[in-house]
Amino acid sequence: MRILDTFRYSAQAATGTPLRTGLLMLAMSIGVAAVVMLTALGDGARRYVVNEFSAIGSNLVIVLPGRSDTRGFNPANIITSTPRDLTVNDASSLLRLPGVMRVAPITVATTEINASGKLREAMMVGTNADFIHVRQLKMGLGRFLGKSAMGHGAAEVVLGNKIRQDIFGNESPLGKMVRVGDRRLRVVGVLAEGGHGMGMSTDELVIVPVSIAQAMLNSNTLFRILVEARSRDQLEEVKARVLKMITQRHEGEEDITVITQDAVLETFDKILGVLTMGVAGIAAISLAVAGILVMNVMLVSVTQRTAEIGLLKALGATSGAVRQLFMVEAILLSLAGALMGIALGYLGAAMLRQFYPTFPAYPPMWAVLAGFGTAMVSGLIFGVMPARRAAQMDPIQALSKR
After folding, report:
1. How many Cα atoms within 13 Å fall on the side-chain side of residue 252?
2. Beta bridge mates, 108
3. Sequence spans of domains, the chain
């Protein structure tokens, strides 16, 4: 039997029972769609985290108060406590280190901003003039904080775009006085709309000099210190020098954690990569179930087409040709289900991106190919038994069952 005839016969046999064929394709497509969708979610989460950390700047070394016992990055360090605080003087000392380009001390707190008869809460960041370069932010209006000694700063404030709109509307706030906490500060700039990083939108920020923020909070401690290295090649060297410098300043006690931006990205990338593989494996189980359904449907088909098989063999069809017919039919059903599943998976990922535009839910190509391949292999493996059963039939006994 020619290959073209084999495919034509198998296709006609598959479409001869549309309801049964449709249910089988639906089962297979659900399995493939699950693989595509779940890996899109997992890989999307990985990309989202990587993008968030990349948005905080480049070539960064981050100094956190508190020591990590494993000497590595741990997400719990973000909210850790420490017996000895980081100070502005600690940050100033890092500027003298070789390979260090900029240093931005950070103090964070919630506060109230009051102007033009309007009052609202905001996240306040106390820092210095280098913060805008370290974080790679852009200005929408005016300028950023002025250059001054690390522990000093003028009575000025930079507003996030959303804060500006809520307080001043479309009116320019430049040069106007606002009350931040218990201080009256002059607005010198507004950040460009849409800045983000680490899950925090800069549109909601109020940025003041670190000295003013510490005076408002009656505290000399820092939340973090961001250190920008001159190049990516110097990151590890700068990390070691920063750790040594702060340890010396803290009387030889290593009570801080110093991490690089690359280490953070690598850690989250590994965690979420394993998670993606895990959910893909779970989804692939449904493809095995769909394969068993293929086998059951084909076994029923063999039983219903016993006389047809006997006629084919009586007309000279070999056992190999009969086996080939049923194997091709199983493969065609699996192929149609797999293609439908890929389409459903891409459609689901597109809908997810439509509802959550910032979440990059794109199915990785390896997952699409793996889902397709697993579906085809599943259909092939579970199609062997029905095909062998059909091929082993005696033509005379098969014809007698007409």
Report:
1. 0
2. 125
3. 3-52+267-400, 85-254
